[in-house]
Design goal:
The protein has 140 residues and is mainly beta. It has one helix and nine strands. It folds into two domains: 77 residues, Chitinase A, domain 3 (Roll), CATH 3.10.50; 49 residues, Thrombin, subunit H (Beta Barrel).
């Protein structure tokens, strides 16, 4: 049975509010995750506690249990000229930026108005209720 600090292998499939798959491990190998380290969204970590190998669950998670609420501080406006040349500047395109620690940060173009481009660093599913099918494969 899974306990709070265990490392587990699992499969998951995430669905948006229209039941469209937005992420899955099915068809690839299961992922291995140490619990309690923040690598998985809280709702999945909580659901794994008490499961046994082979168990399956379907979860419906509110934004706070999944990818969080939309943080308006992560939405910025920049001048079009500050974006990389050759980049297709249209709604939905992802631009990679660099955090202060050197890690990559994906920014999604939310809107383009003249020379002003609105970029969003929130997770694309932030603010959304999501559904997940999970299957515990192994407790390590």
């Amino acid at each position: 049975m899974v306990k709070e600090k265990d490392t587990v292998s699992l499969h998951y499939t995430g669905y948006d509010r229209k039941d469209k798959v937005f992420d899955t491990t099915v068809g690839e190998g299961p992922i291995e995750v140490p619990l309690g380290m923040g690598y998985m969204i809280p709702g999945i970590e909580d659901a794994l506690i008490g499961m046994n190998e082979g168990d399956k669950k379907t979860l419906t998670l509110e934004p706070e249990e999944a990818y969080g609420l939309i943080d308006n501080d992560l939405i910025i406006q920049v001048d079009r000229s500050s974006l990389p040349s050759g980049l297709e500047i249209k709604r939905g395109v992802t631009v990679m930026s660099e955090n202060e620690d050197g890690s990559e940060l994906p920014l999604t173009i939310k809107s383009v108005r003249g020379e002003t481009v609105t970029l969003d660093a929130n997770h694309p599913m932030a603010g959304e209720r999501v559904k997940f099918d999970i299957q515990l494969i192994k407790i390590h």
